[in-house]
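Incident review: delayed structure delivery

Summary: a single-chain prediction request sat in the queue longer than the usual turnaround. Root cause was a stuck worker, restarted by the on-call engineer. No data loss occurred. The affected request and its eventual output are reproduced below so the record is complete for anyone auditing the incident later.

Affected input:
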Amino acid sequence: MSPRQRLRLVLVLGSLIAIGPLTIDMYLPALPAIAADLHTTSAAVQLTLTGTLAGLALGQLLIGPLSDAVGRRVPLLAGTALHIVASVLCAVAPNIGMVGTLRVLQGLGAAATSVVAVAVVRDLFSGAAFAKLFSRLMLVMGVAPILAPTLGSGLLRWSDWRGVFVALAVFGVLLIAVAAFGLGETLPPERRRHGGLAAVVRDYRSLLRDRTFVGLVLVAGLAMAALFAYVAGSSFVFQQQYGLDEQQFGLAFGAGAIGLIAATQLNVRLLRRYSPQRILVTALGVGTAAGLVLLAFAATGFGGLPSILASLWVVLAAAGLAMPNAPALALSRHGEAAGTAAALLGAVQFGVGALAAPLVGVLGTGSVAMAAVVAGGMVAAMAVLLTVVRPGRLVEVEPAVVAVAPH
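Output delivered after worker restart:
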């Protein structure tokens, strides 16, 4: 694959995956406004975020095996169409219950783009080559979390929160065109999985029996939980506790995303000298320490908002190093069922994130609640890595690094 072809692949897949972060993050500045407009509580509004993450998790479990059986393009196009319809209906929803239900459907649609994009990368690459391309992909993906709250804040200047969902529907229409004309089929018929439901169950059973794979998936999921705890709590912490307006919140949120993106690009350079497992261990160690420091700052109030932002930046940067390498190590073990493996990985990531988001609300939506869940996710990820994955054994089980030619 030439550099130009690789760049085109990154841009196409990055734009497809971006719909997930945009769906999650774009309405964050509007959460307090939604609560006021629909006469509900902040915890109820945060449950709409949980609904989206639950839809993303469930959708990947369904779409991953389907893409292994019928190819990547059909599930991708159908899922994007579902996302468009759900976005339009969200824009006219009369109550928080309807918004929550439709957000689940939005998540189901966005799941198609997430799982298919990861499966396409695994169709073409493996091992460190996968990690490098995935890091580049996260650069494109990372623009979405930076722009999403800022775009949402801009829309709120001339529209109410419903305008955010209209914008998501328009973006979905653009993605249909990108998917239809910019992405060829990467799974030829001879490599597709057959056997119906029995084969799907067999594939999932094989994955779940692989202790190292399961451990790496849990590590990725718990790191994602820390990230989504920040996503769920940041708007209330920054706007209500520290008094930032919607535009200032967009800037503060974007600063954290910059740290995440910078770390993913640093990962490409680090992979030239260090193994994915070594980077993963170091990143989680730093992230765990930073998470505990964040919790201490939140509990004591020491340093105010700057100390909260600085420690959060380190946690997000550590997550940016961990998130490309844990999936690369996990998916390199099961290239024969890349869609199903990517589905399980994504389902755990978003499923654990769906649990983390309301937990912040239950604990109080303040900085201590957010910091406790962020730190807890990083501590748990490190614990799973050390006790279940056992990094010293990864060198023995990691397969040879290869780049698979595109079809």
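Verification: Residues 71 and 188 are 7 Å apart (CA to CA).
Action items: add queue-age alerting; document worker restart procedure.
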